[in-house]
Amino acid sequence: MDKAFLENLLAFDARPDSVQLRKRSFELLEAGPGRRVADVGCGAGTAVAELAAAGADAVGVDAAEEAVAFARERHPDLRFELGDAAKLPFPDESLDGYRAEKLYHALDDPGGACAEAHRVLAPGGRIVLLGQDWDLFVIDSDDPALTRTIMTAAADELPHGRVARHYRALLLDTGFTDVSCEVHTPVLDPALAMFVVNRLATGAVRTGAVSQAEADGWLAEQRGRAERDRLFVALPLFLAAGRRPVTPS
Length: 249
Known about the structure:
Strand content: 15-25%
Largest sheet: 7 strands, mixed
Structural class: alpha/beta
Radius of gyration: 19 Å
Shape: globular
C-alpha cells in the first residue's frame, strides 16, 4: 500500500456521497459517546477521526504499516494499531462496534475475519461491513465484452473480489442477527474514474486475461471519453449490518 494509493483513497473519502455513506454506516454501527468501536482496515484513518468526533472511543486497525504510519501522521491524537483482521488485538467481548470498509475482498479468509469480529463484540454489539464487488463496476464502453473480461479478471485476481454480494449471508452464517443490507452506487468523477479503469486494465494484463494491446486500446477509448466528457464509471457499494445476539442464537 503506497502513498499514492492512500492519497487516492483520501480523494474518494472526501466525496460528498462517500461522507454521507460513512455517516450511514455510523448510524448502523450505533456509534456515539462512550461507545467502544474499531475500524478494521482503517487506511488513512478518516472514519476513525469522524467516529472520535462523534464521541466514540475509536481505534483504527490496519495490517499495512504504511497505512498506520500515514493515519498516525494525519491524526496524531488518535489511536491506530498494526493488526490482522483475523487476529485482532482486543479481548473477548470488549467492543460495542466493529466496522470494516473496503477490506474483506483483500482477505484470504473473510469468514474467519467475521468470526473474529463476533469474538471481540460484546453481546448486543454492532457490526458494519462496507465495500465494492469488483465484478460489478458499471463502465460505459464501445466494447462491452472486453469490458466484462477486464472486470472479471480484476475480481478473479483478488482473494475474494465478489465477497460484497455475500455480506448478508456471511453475517447470518456467523451468527449475527438483525441483519440488513443496502446498495449505494456513486458515479465517479473523471480523475477517480480514470484511476479505476487504469487499475482494472493493468490487473487484467497481469493475469493474462487480455493482451497489452487490448488493454491499451480499451484505455485509449476511456481517455477519449474523458476528453469529450463522456466517461462513465459507477461503483455499487454494499453496506451490511448486524448485531451480536444478547443471548446465544
